[in-house]
Design brief:
The structure holds two protein chains of two kinds. Chain A has nine helices and 13 strands. By secondary structure, chain A is α+β, with helices and mostly antiparallel strands. In chain A, helix 1 runs antiparallel to helix 2 (19-40). The longest helix of chain A has 22 residues, at 19-40. Chain B has helices at residues 2-13, 15-26, 33-61, 71-93, 98-107, 109-126, 130-136, 138-145, 147-162, 168-192. In chain B, helix 3 (33-61) packs antiparallel against helix 4, helix 4 packs across helix 6 (109-126) and helix 6 runs antiparallel to helix 9. Chain B is mainly alpha-helical. Helices cover 83% and strands 0% of the residues of chain B. The chains are: A alpha+beta, B mainly alpha. Chains A and B meet through helix 1 and helix 3 of A and helix 2, helix 3, helix 4 and helix 5 of B. The complex binds protoporphyrin IX containing FE. Protoporphyrin IX containing FE (HEM) is lined by residues 35, 38-39, 42-43, 45-46, 49, 82, 85-86, 89, 93, 111, 114-115, 117-118, 155, 158-159, 162 of chain B.
Chain lengths: 320, 193
């Protein structure tokens, strides 16, 4: 029964393959899937169709994108850890509808020549938007494949001209308890903060992200501006950024403040170093059949060739 | 009516499972179905365990002796949902990856506690028949079945330990459990004193 059901749903997932590529095929699959689902499901039982975002024009493809098919749009936009909107995975999609991601400004502070308050569009505009299909690995041992839209973070930071004193970059999420119900509960220290070493932030894989699946970021995925750091656990990829600060010392990070024993500053994906509550050796790829083995987790989430040099000589079991 | 009470409660206790099957069939289990099913079954295992632990206090407070005959059924249902919870963990979460399961049991404290709780509940379920009560003798049977208090604590603790930041739900269960166990302690002290 379960297996049959999963098969019937599968085509629905492909509904969300990058829009530019699969538009026509998608419509066909959608119709077929809908017919399949409706044939078995009593009326009303099916979840509501996700509302799609505004398409982003002129995306440059990225030559190193994964060739694996992306996770379904519906999965990637209804299963989110964004505690600002609630602590269950479905909460962000449910409770972020009235969140206003525009207009949006970002405060740039600290050791850089160009500081001040910028409209986020002005930070992005000078750069070519790219569509990059990355693996996304959560510290809770599940993973997705997501086509993100963004620009290299390093390119934006370079234009802000960090000074010699800048060794780290700190990021902060917006604080709006009136629009973000999770922030009304003191279960984490708000606002959410994250940080990177400057060389990590300058790494060409670090993506300052404004969209996914060819569209503007949905609120529940960190609209309008977030990081995506594919070699690190998902919580490092901070969402809804309002502040970027160049610092001399290692900036505090929210999960490290909450549970230092469980979450370090680096939080690189590493199958050999377990989290106390989850083995990190394997991961559940969302969208895989109900009855299927987990997949082995790759060092630095499969980006070891690109990023391992950043951590040469470091004891990754200690600096987790 | 009283003759129907038992079959009715028996059927009611199957409702969560029926709902799970219905949801799986109609809407699916969402983005991470293995997690959804496992947690759903864990939730109901704990709820039934606490319900079984509530029988005696309710019976005594409400002066409602008829309640006693549901105790065994509720306890067995708790065990039933624990077995399903564990099965979903083996079959869905880990898909028979015994090496990973073994490591989990040894290294993840919350799994260790879950397993220990399961280990406590198993002899209770096995000795739940009238025949076993006779074979053990009432006194020994009673002593053995006091393990259920520890199992209750284990179940709540297991939930507490798996939570990342939102401890509100396990806290609610902890409060309920404290009430159920605390009441017993209080009553004992009063009866003795
Ligand atoms: C037999 C050994 C057990 C194993 C291997 C086990 C395993 C697990 C796992 C893997 C989770 C989910 C963790 C996650 O999704 O991150 C979980 C959650 C849970 N388990 Fe167990 N468990 C066991 C025994 C028990 C027992 C005996 C009870 C209750 C009497 C119980 C009640 C729960 C509850 C209430 C949750 C939380 C569900 C939620 O998040 O809503 N488990 N368990």
């Amino acid at each position: 029964m379960l297996i049959k059901h999963v098969r019937a749903r599968d085509p629905l997932s492909s509904e969300i393959t990058p829009r530019a590529v699969f538009e026509g095929r998608r419509r066909l699959l959608k119709a077929a899937a809908a017919a399949g689902v409706w044939a078995f499901a009593p009326a009303g039982a099916k979840a509501a169709k996700p509302v799609r975002g505004e398409p982003i024009p002129n995306l440059a493809p990225w030559p190193k994108s994964l060739s694996e098919p992306p996770t379904g749009y519906e999965l990637a936009t209804t299963y989110n850890n964004f505690y600002e909107f609630g602590f269950d995975k479905e909460d962000p999609a449910r409770h972020s509808k009235s969140f206003k991601p525009r207009p949006w400004t970002v405060a740039v502070e600290g050791h850089a020549e160009k500081t001040g308050t910028f409209d986020f569009e002005d930070l992005i505009k000078p750069h070519q938007l790219e569509e990059r299909v990355y693996r996304f690995r959560c510290v809770e041992a599940w993973s997705m494949v997501v086509p993100w839209v963004g620009v290299p973070l390093g390119d934006v930071l370079k234009r802000l001209v960090p000074t010699a004193k800048a060794k780290y970059v700190a990021f902060q999420t917006v604080l709006r308890p009136e629009e973000m119900p999770g922030q009304r509960l003191p279960l984490l220290k708000w606002p959410y903060v994250e940080g990177l070493r400057l060389d990590e932030a300058m790494h060409p894989l670090a993506l300052l992200t404004v969209g996914m699946y060819g569209e503007r970021l949905p609120n529940q995925n960190g609209a309008p501006l977030r990081l995506v750091l594919p070699w690190k656990y998902g919580f490092k990829s901070i969402k809804s950024i309002v502040r970027i600060a160049f610092t001399e010392t290692e900036p505090p990070t929210t999960w490290n403040i909450a549970t230092p024993r469980e979450y370090g500053f680096y939080s690189n994906v590493n199958p050999q170093v377990d989290h106390p509550r989850w083995s990190q050796a394997k991961e559940r790829r969302l969208g895989d059949p109900f009855f299927s083995p987990k997949r082995p987790t790759l060092m630095f989430n499969g980006y070891a060739e690109d990023v391992a040099h950043l951590y040469a000589g470091m004891d990754l079991a200690k600096l987790y | 009516m009283t003759r129907l009470a038992k079959p009715i409660v028996f059927a009611l206790c199957l409702l969560p499972l029926a709902w799970l099957a219905y949801r799986g069939w109609t809407a699916g289990f969402g983005a991470h179905p293995q997690e959804y099913v496992n947690r759903f079954l864990g939730d109901w295992a704990l709820r039934f365990l606490l319900t079984a632990l509530a029988v005696t206090p309710l019976r005594q407070i409400g002066n409602w002796p008829q309640l006693a005959r549901f105790r065994r059924m509720l306890g067995l249902y708790a065990f039933f949902y624990v077995v399903l919870h564990l099965s979903s963990y083996v079959v869905a979460t880990h898909f028979f990856d015994w090496a990973a399961i073994g490591k989990d049991i040894l290294k993840r404290n919350y799994i260790t506690v879950g397993m220990a709780t399961f280990a406590m509940l198993t002899p209770l379920a096995a000795t739940s028949t009238a025949g076993m009560v006779k074979r053990l003798g009432a006194a020994r049977w009673k002593k053995l079945h006091r393990l259920v208090y520890l199992a209750g604590i284990g179940g709540v603790f297991h939930f507490f330990m798996m939570v990342k930041a939102d401890w509100r739900e396990p806290l609610l269960y902890a409060v309920i459990l404290s009430g159920l166990l605390g009441w017993r302690v209080w009553r004992r002290a009063r009866v003795k004193g």
